[in-house]
Amino acid sequence: MATAAQWVSAARPRTLPAAIAPVLVGCGAGAAILGVHHSSWTAESWVKAALALIVALALQVGVNYANDYSDGIRGTDGAHRVGPFRLVGSGAAAPQAVKAGAITCFAIAAAAGLALAITSAWWLILVGAASIAAAWFYTGGRRPYGYAGFGELFVFVFFGLVAVLGTTYVIAERVSITSIVLAVGTGLLACAILVANNLRDVATDGATGKRTLAVILGDGLTRRVYAAMLVAALLAVVVVGLRHPWCLIALAAALPAIRPVRQVLRGARGPALIPVLGATGMTEFCYAVLLLIGLLL
Taking Cα atoms as reference points, which of 166, 215, 220, 168 lies closest to residue 194? Predict the structure, then answer.
C-alpha cells in the first residue's frame, strides 16, 4: 500500500504553479476591469476566486493521477523512468485506487465549478465538463491526445486561455484585451512546463510509442521551442505594459528563468532536467504574482 508521502509525490507538487498562476492572473485582470476600489469587488468576488482556485488545483492533481493510472496500465512508466515517482508504474498502489483518486479530484473540481456556474453563468458547466474530459483523455482512452503530440495545445487552451479568461469572467462578468494577452503568456509558460517534462522523457517515450511533441520535433528543436515559449510570455508582459505600466514588474520573472533556459539550451538530459521542471513552474508562479501586483497597482 502506498504511503501518504508517495501519494503526495505522485500528485507532482512541482506542477501546481501551473494551476495557481492562471487564477492569480485572472483575478488581477478582473480587478483591473472593475477597478481595485470598485464596489463590485465584494466578498462574493473573493469566494468566486477561491472556487476558481479549487477547480484549477483539483484538475491539476486529478490529471496527474489520471496520467499515473493510464501510463501505468499501458506500461509507459517502465523500470527506466527518470521522472517523478509513479504509483502504478512502481507497483506501490493498485491501478483502481489511483483511478479512484483521479475521479475524486475531478468530482471536487466539478462541485466547485458547479457552484461557480450557479453564481455566474450556466455555460461554465460545459467549460468544466470539457476541462475534465481533456484531463482524462490526455493519456486515457483508446486514443490519448497526449500520445499524438497535442498535449501542449490542450495545456495552452485549458491552463492558459480557459483558466485565465474563465477566472476573469467570473470576477468581472466580462473579459478584456489585457486578460486575453496575459492568458496567452500564461498558457505559454504552462506549455513550457510540459515541454520540459517531455524533453526529460523523450528517449523512453519514443521507445514506448508515446509521441509527445518533444518526440515529434526532436531533441534540438524542442529545446529551442522551450526557450521561445518563455521569451514570448515575457513579450506578452511588454504588450500589456503599454496600457498598464506597473505590469512591467513581471519582467522580473525572467530571473528565475535564466538557469533552466541555460540548462535546456546547453543540453541537459534525463535526471538533469528534473530541476528544470520545478524552476519553470516557479517562473510561472512569479510571473503570475508580479502580474497580479502590477494589475492591482
Answer: 215
